[in-house]
């Protein structure tokens, strides 16, 4: 029964079961979504733009993607719906006064709080770290928490006063259902623009 001099193999050593599905660390995923560019995977830096599906990008990465059509990048599918710079909106973000940034821990002897966010909601003061839902307005690019938009129901932007409609509100880094809804709205909007151009 043994193989080499008295060893007796157990069943679990011989029979391999189905592989366990690796679970994605939710905290790491949130940090990646809210702190890194979807296209270049570099840390987000101003100017930051968002597409019609609510994904965050560095503006220079989007411009490079649009100019460099020859190279098929693996992450190009994340931005395949971006056909021109008009398909993204530059975001007007409010800085978080409590955020220390990279200057806070240069020696590596302090704990980095990954939930501390660079930006906050200008109305309610919630941090933009993925724990709360955030939206931006397509018409002006101002970013708010969803709670602020629900609590203060208005037809104008809370920061700049620009008028907006319900379809101008786009959820940042939303769920799969949110992305599907936004994709449908994006296709409707593009079709409407195409029909208006043909009518002229």
Automatic annotation (TrEMBL):
GO terms for cellular component: nucleus. GO terms for biological process: DNA replication termination. It comes from the Eukaryota. CDD domains: RING-like_Rtf2 (cd16653). InterPro entries: Rtf2, Rtf2_RING-finger. Interacts with DDI2; probably also interacts with DDI1. Belongs to the rtf2 family. Replication termination factor which is a component of the elongating replisome. Required for ATR pathway signaling upon DNA damage and has a positive activity during DNA replication. Might function to facilitate fork pausing at replication fork barriers like the rDNA. May be globally required to stimulate ATR signaling after the fork stalls or encounters a lesion. Interacts with nascent DNA. This is Replication termination factor 2. The gene is CT043.
């Amino acid at each position: 029964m043994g193989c080499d001099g008295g060893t007796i193999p157990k069943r679990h050593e011989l029979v391999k079961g189905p592989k366990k599905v690796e679970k994605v660390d939710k905290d790491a995923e949130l940090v990646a979504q809210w702190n890194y560019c979807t296209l270049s995977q570099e840390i987000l830096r101003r100017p930051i733009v968002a597409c019609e599906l609510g994904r965050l990008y560095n503006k220079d990465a989007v411009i490079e993607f649009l100019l460099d059509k020859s190279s098929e990048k693996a992450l190009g599918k994340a931005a395949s719906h971006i056909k021109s710079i008009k398909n993204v909106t530059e975001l007007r973000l409010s800085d978080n006064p409590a955020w220390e940034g990279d200057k806070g821990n240069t020696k590596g002897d302090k704990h980095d709080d990954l939930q501390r966010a660079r930006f906050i909601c200008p109305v309610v003061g919630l941090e933009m770290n993925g724990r709360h839902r955030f939206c931006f307005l397509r018409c002006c690019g101002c970013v708010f928490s969803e709670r602020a938009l629900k609590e203060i129901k208005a037809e104008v932007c809370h920061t700049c006063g620009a008028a907006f409609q319900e379809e101008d509100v786009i959820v940042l880094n939303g769920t799969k259902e949110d992305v599907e809804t936004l994709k449908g709205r994006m296709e409707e909007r593009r079709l409407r623009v195409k029909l208006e151009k043909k009518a002229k």
